[in-house]
């Protein structure tokens, strides 16, 4: 499990200490540190540390940087039942806090967030405020995200885009054999989850297509953000299992109906 935190103190060590009892840290993991510049904005020191191995369905207590407040997280179970919360387009509006409260009430094990996180849209300080906004939840359960159009932030000097997203929200793409943080897969409780990137190439000659062909599972959940409105995906070209909390829908055919994440 990866712990991410940001500090303005360059001398603070990139370390996470953790254990199963409050204030008693029996293990520690050293992390890596990065930062980025975007026009006149300079980020804080962004730290990523992988902790573990961890026991399943267990509460751990941890702190970052060798000091500061103590947090706690609960690891997912190793087998069914498991509860997923699936919410995208969080943003930072008057409704976001209400949405987070509803998520918290779900007693979920893993949050899947299919795109459009902070709605920073080039205003980098909004990435900082979004982090503070979701910290009470994101520090307690795994949040697995993929990018949307609001994460791209492509301008003349940063044509490839996703600079802030890739620096701040590092997902286990290397562990899953992906070449990009924009798409990856992971396993939890016997479920193989594939998080696809609809804002990076996915045609037959792309790295993403080759990777997906290699790791694809017929029982995987596929999570996309929508395509650009003028380049919608035809339903006979890409099928993805719905992540909605509902049973299978029998519509003319005996197999379960499949849904695209968005029109």
From TrEMBL:
Family classification: Belongs to the metallophosphoesterase superfamily. Purple acid phosphatase family.
**What is catalysed by this protein?**
a phosphate monoester + H2O = an alcohol + phosphate
Q: Does the keyword Lipid metabolism apply?
A: no
What keyword terms does UniProt attach to this protein?
A: Hydrolase, Signal
PANTHER family of this UniProt entry? ACID PHOSPHATASE RELATED, PURPLE ACID PHOSPHATASE 18
Known EC number(s)? Answer: 3.1.3.2
Q: Where is the Calcineurin-like phosphoesterase domain?
A: 84-227
The molecule here is called Purple acid phosphatase
Q: What Gene Ontology molecular function terms does this protein carry?
A: acid phosphatase activity; metal ion binding
* Domain Purple acid phosphatase N-terminal, chain residue ranges per copy: 1-75
